[in-house]
Amino acid sequence: MDLSLNDASPADLDVPSRQDLAGLVVELGVEQPLQLDCGARLGPFKMAYRTYGQLNADRSNAILVCHALTGDQHPADPPHTDRAGWWERMVGSGQVLDTDRYFVICANVLGGCMGSEGPKEINPETGVPWGLDFPVITIADMVRAQTLLLDHLGIEKLFCVIGGSMGAMQALQFAVSYPERTFASVPIAGAARHSAQNIGFHEVGRQAIMADPDWCDGAYLSYGTKPRRGLAVARMAAHITYLSEEALHRKFGRRLQDRKSVTYGFDADFQVESYLRHQGSAFVDRFDANSYLYITRAMDYFDLAAEHGGLLARAFKDTPVRYCVISFTSDWLFPTPESRQIVHGLNAAAADVSFCEIETDKGHDAFLLDEPEFFAVLNGFLEGCASLKGLKV
Amino acid sequence: MDLSLNDASPADLDVPSRQDLAGLVVELGVEQPLQLDCGARLGPFKMAYRTYGQLNADRSNAILVCHALTGDQHPADPPHTDRAGWWERMVGSGQVLDTDRYFVICANVLGGCMGSEGPKEINPETGVPWGLDFPVITIADMVRAQTLLLDHLGIEKLFCVIGGSMGAMQALQFAVSYPERTFASVPIAGAARHSAQNIGFHEVGRQAIMADPDWCDGAYLSYGTKPRRGLAVARMAAHITYLSEEALHRKFGRRLQDRKSVTYGFDADFQVESYLRHQGSAFVDRFDANSYLYITRAMDYFDLAAEHGGLLARAFKDTPVRYCVISFTSDWLFPTPESRQIVHGLNAAAADVSFCEIETDKGHDAFLLDEPEFFAVLNGFLEGCASLKGLKV
Prior knowledge:
Main location (chains A, B): cytoplasm
Keywords (chains A, B): Acyltransferase, Amino-acid biosynthesis, Cytoplasm, Methionine biosynthesis, Transferase
Largest sheet of chain A: 9 strands, mixed
CATH class of the largest domain in chain A: Alpha Beta
Largest interface: A-B, 58 and 58 residues
Subcellular location (chains A, B): Cytoplasm
Strand content of chain A: 15-25%
Shape of chain A: globular
Number of domains of chain A: 2
CATH superfamily of the largest domain in chain A: Alpha/Beta hydrolase fold, catalytic domain
Oligomer: homodimer
Family (chains A, B): Belongs to the AB hydrolase superfamily. MetX family.
InterPro entries (chains A, B): AB_hydrolase_1, AB_hydrolase_fold, HAT_MetX-like
CATH architecture of the largest domain in chain A: 3-Layer(aba) Sandwich
Number of strands of chain A: 13
C-alpha cells in the first residue's frame, strides 16, 4: 500500500501547504464562519484530513469515512508509525473501500485533537489554547464542517458516507441534513439517538477527567500538565463497553498476569486489569482530555428524531439516499434494537434500506475488526450501489 | 415493625454491651485469631451484626442474611434514619423471611465500614486506622468470620444462608466450606466466580479512587480527608452496572433535568447525569473508600471451582445442603448463565437444587426490589425446607 499521506490529489485541487502528522490541514470558514448549533460562529477553523485513491473525472466516486469517538483521519497507513490504521483492513487497494476504485476521504472531526479545530488548538482571539472556551459542538456541526471540506475538494455529491459508532451518527446526520449530497449512507453499530445508559457511561468518563486536579478547570495546557489519571480512568471504563463479556472472557478469563497466584493486594493480579491499565495509560499519550469531553457531549446530544418533532420517519421523509444499516449481535453499547429503530424509521418513510445483523461475539469493537460476513455485506451493498449509479472508474 | 435494634436476644446469649449505629458489636477471635487466606492472622476483631425475631428452643430457625458490596447489617429497620433497610420488604413480620418464625441474623462483612473490622477501624498495634495495613480478605474469610459469630450466638447449624450479588457468593461459600452448618443455601443474582468483565469494572472503580490525590496512598483518615471525587466516580460507574438499559431508559430516557433545552455545556443537562452524580456524592457520605477497595478485591478473588481443582462439581461433592439458585433476566452484571453454571455444578454433584430465572427488566438491582415472582419462588422454597426439616416455631 502506498505510504504517502495522499495517494493522489487531483491537480486542480488547491491543496494546502502544511502537511504533517495530521495529514493535510485546510483552513475553512474563512469567508463565512460556520454557524454552530449552540449559536456560536466558528471561523476560520482548521480541518485535518486525509485522502486515498483518485477522484474520477466526474467526481462521482468519493466516499467519506467518518471516525468514531477516539478515531482519527487515518483509517489506513497512519504516518510515522508501525501501527495499523483503525480501518486498515477496510480501506486500501482491493479492499472493500477499494482505493483503486474510490476516492476515500477521512477528516478529523471538529472538536477533535488530531489537527482539526478543537479545544487543544490555539484560540486566535486569545493566543492560548481554546480549552473550555471552545464552543460545544454537535454531530450536526461536525457534519457541517465536513461539507465545507467537500466544497473545498470540489465534491458536490458523495458516492457514500460511512462510519461506525459515532461515525454512524455522522453517516446518518449527513444523509439527513444533506440528502442531495450523498448517494448512499452506511451507519454501522450506531443509533438514531444516544441512550440513557450511554449518556451515563459518558458522564462517568467526564466526571473522572474533571475530578482530576490536573484538569485545572480545562486550562491544563496553559499549566503544562494534563489530567492523566482522570483520562486513563475514563478510557478504562469506556473500553469495557467496547468489548463483549464473551470477548473479555475468551481474551483474559481469570488468568493472572505474570504470576502463579494472587498477591492479596491491589496490583494488577489479573490480565484483564493489566490490559485495562495499559489501555488507559496509552490513551493518555494520544488523546486530549478536553476533546474527550467535547466529543462525548456531541454524542450525548445526538437525537435525530428530536430534531424532527420526535418522529424519526420525518427525518427520512422523501430521502433519495440508499441506506445500509449494520449491527453486531454482541454489541451492548449500540445493540441491534438501536439499529432496528433506524430501519423502522426508514421503512416508515418508504426509504431504500438494507439491514444486516452480523453474528459475532466481539462486541461493539467488531466494526473495527476482521469480520468476513460484515465485509461481504458491505461489499455487496457498495457493488449494488455502484451498479445502480453506473459508477465508472 | 419493632424499631428496637434487636427484636429479642435469647437471654442466655452473652450480648456485648456496646450498641450503637452498628447494632450489636462483638469482639471475636480473642482466644484464637482468625486465619485468613492471605496468610495473616486477625484477632481480636470486631463484628457488627443485627438480629431480628427469636431463636427457637432447639436453635434451628436461624437464617443468615449476607449483604452485597455496599450493604450493611440492617436489611430492615436501620437505626436513626427514615430510610428503609436494603431488604425491608423481605425481612419482617409476615414477610418472606418472616421474623415471627425465623431468627434472622445479618453481619457487616469483614473488611466493611459499618462497624466490623475493616480498613477504617483502628489497628490496635499502631493506634491509627488500618488503611492499607489491613490484610486483603476473601469471601471465604468473610464466611469464616460469620461462623465465629454463629459460635458466639450458640448456633451450630443454620436453617438457611441467603444473599444476593456478593451475598450470593457468601451463601455459596458458606454452604461449600461448612456444609454441615446449614440446611439450605440461596444464592441470588450471583456467580461461582467473578467474571473478567466484572473484575474490569471493579478495577475501574479502584483506579478512580487511587487516582484521587486525597486518597493519600490509603492513609486519608490520618490526614482528615477522604477521596470524595474518586469514590463518587467509582460509584457512578458501578451504579450503571446495577441497572438494565431498559430500566435506565424507562426511568430517565433522554429527559432533561429542570430545563427545556440542552445548555451546550458540561452541566448535568440530562436526568440520568443528575441521578448518577447524586448517587456518587451520596455514596461518599456513607461508605469508606478503602473498604470499597478491599471488598471489590474479595469479589474479584472469588472462584469456587479454582479452590477445587478447577471443577465446580467437586466443590459440591456429597453436599447435604438444599440449594435454591435465582437469577434475573435483565441482570447483565451477574447474568443467568453464571447462575446456570452453579446449577450445572450442583447437578453434576447430584445435589438438591432448585433454579429459577425471574423475568424482570430491572437489572441486577432486581434482587433488592419488590419482585412478586421472586418473593413467591423464595417463599415456596423456604416453606418446602421448613416442612422437610419439620421446623417448629
